Amino acid sequence: MRLLPVLALLALLAPAARAQAPITIVVNFAAGGSADRMARLLAPELGEALGTQVVVKTTTGAAGAIGAAEVARARPDGTTLLLTTTGPMGVQPHFRSDLPYRVADFAPLCQLGDAPVMVMSAPGSTVRDAASLVARARAARGGFNYGSVGPGSIPHIVMVALARQNNLDMTHVPFRGSAEAIIALLRQDVEVYADLPGALRVNNLQAVGVMAEARTAEFPDTPTMREQGYDLVYSIWAGLFAPANTPAAFMERAEAACQRALRAPSVVEGFERLSTPIT
């Protein structure tokens, strides 16, 4: 007879125990890049709001597709989330038939930030503006390298757009994440790299042009590509996603926790260092 009260108590405690399970945020680009840094800023604040440990894991490859697929296959129980930027969700599903996931495999949780693409070159490079970029690329006749985080990523697409507008032959060099691309840029293995502007100041890079409709508050002295005669407007957003069919109760709690985390001073200051306005 004493067993019944114990079983009743365990039944009451079971939902609480499940709620306290650790949460893993999978970042689908390499450690040290903008997406990874966003996740590490958010993790402690999300953990505090949800009352559990939140850890960050990077799963790289295929321009973010491998990490996205990992989350698509995960149990929809609130223990696995995806932090991704635009490409794997907003671009690749529209032109790749071989993707190991579909957009429908995910439930959007919250948008984190959105920033215009910045074209960057190494300190001391003679590529200082859009005109010098185009001139160097045309003179190199295929020997002008640019970096990206993989085929179908926004850093790749914007450079393809520039090349097509100006009939340029440039060489695409893909990397697993923005941190690797920046290292290659600093080594001058690639001439330019276009991505979120978070790496610009910390690496003393040169701002070639911003792909925005107007100059940004973060970089008021950097002319837009439009100002320089090239009609290119692109931005990159970052967001949190859960596997499809994750329980609505968790999604509501997690969305509220995300909004709370985005108001935390440490997160606001961190996103300011990344030059990515919180949305």
Topology:
Layout: H1 3-19, E1 23-27, H2 34-50, E2 54-58, H3 65-73, E3 80-85, H4 86-91, E4 106-121, H5 130-140, E5 145-148, H6 154-166, E6 171-174, H7 178-186, E7 192-195, H8 199-202, E8 206-211, E9 235-243, H9 248-263, H10 265-273
Parallel strand pairs: 1-2, 1-3, 5-6, 5-7
Antiparallel strand pairs: 3-9, 4-7, 4-8, 4-9
Helix pairs in contact: 2-9, 2-10
Backbone shape: globular
Query: How many helices does DSSP assign?
Result: 10
Q: Would you tell me the overall average pLDDT?
A: 92
Which radius of gyration do the C-alpha atoms yield? 21 Å
Order of helices and strands: HEHEHEHEHEHEHEHEEHH
- E-strand count: 9
What's the number of domains? 2
The CATH architecture designation of the largest domain is: 3-Layer(aba) Sandwich
The largest sheet is:
9 strands, mixed
Backbone structural class: alpha/beta
CATH structural class of the largest domain: Alpha Beta
Q: Residue ranges: pLDDT <50 for 5 or more in a row?
A: none
- The CATH superfamily of the largest domain is Bordetella uptake gene, domain 1
| Percent strand | 15-25%
Q: How far apart lie the N and C ends?
A: 57 Å
